[in-house]
Design goal:
The protein is an alpha/beta fold. The chain has a single domain, classed as 3-Layer(aba) Sandwich (RbsD-like fold), CATH 3.40.1650.10. It is built from seven helices and six strands, in the order H-H-H-E-E-H-E-H-E-H-E-E-H. Strands 2-5-1-6-3-4 form a six-stranded mixed sheet. It is globular and about 60 Å long. About 12% of the residues have low confidence.
Length: 188
């Protein structure tokens, strides 16, 4: 009996420190963004989502629990993207958000004001939540998607960032395609 008690104490001592430590995924989200961003390019996505956002199972989707405030994560991710040499953000948000009342979701109005202020320098495309999720699911079949879950508890607050090329604009691509078409060079 003594030996059994001794073994149990040793085992408990071995497992307790491990379970008491915060898990790496809640403390290293900034490091994950810093590690992933140089590898990500146009057509990849970074999502900063509320705490009830579903754990998607697409082949290219990686989800990280940040344990952080959503506005903090949005600010940090956009700062990292803005400092990058290769990508720029194309931001999409849920079309439902402007209609979420404070009576049903306390803090919705305050969030709208804060996120509006934070994103004022960026164009924002508003799409129905199901449409944005479908876009992400389709993209994840061919491209990586990094999902950063936050502690946000207001619905329809997720910020969906599709990355695009910073040094090559849509207008430049259109001009290139027009030149190719004029020269009889159809894209293959």
């Amino acid at each position: 009996m003594r030996k059994l008690l001794m073994v149990l104490c040793i085992l408990a001592g071995t497992f307790l420190p491990c379970s008491a430590q915060p898990s790496a995924h809640t403390t290293d989200w900034r490091a994950k963004v810093a590690e992933a961003l140089p590898l990500l390019g146009h057509r990849n996505w970074i999502l900063i989502v509320d705490s009830a956002y579903p754990l998607q199972a697409g082949p290219g989707i990686e989800t990280v629990e940040t344990g952080a405030n959503q506005l903090e994560v949005v600010r940090s991710v956009l700062g990292a993207i803005d400092r990058s040499i290769h990508v720029r953000p194309v931001i999409q948000m849920d079309a439902e958000l402007p209609f979420v009342p404070d009576e049903d979701a306390p803090g919705a109005s305050a969030y709208r004001a804060e996120i509006g202020d934070l994103l004022r320098a960026y164009p924002i495309e508003s799409l129905a939540h199901d449409k944005v999720i479908a876009n992400v699911e389709e993209a994840s079949k061919h491209f990586n998607v990094l999902v950063l879950k936050t502690t946000m508890t207001v619905p329809y607050t997720s910020v969906f960032i599709r990355l695009d090329c910073k040094y090559w604009s849509a207008a430049a691509e259109k001009r290139l395609r027009a030149k190719m078409a004029a020269a009889g060079q159809a894209p293959q």
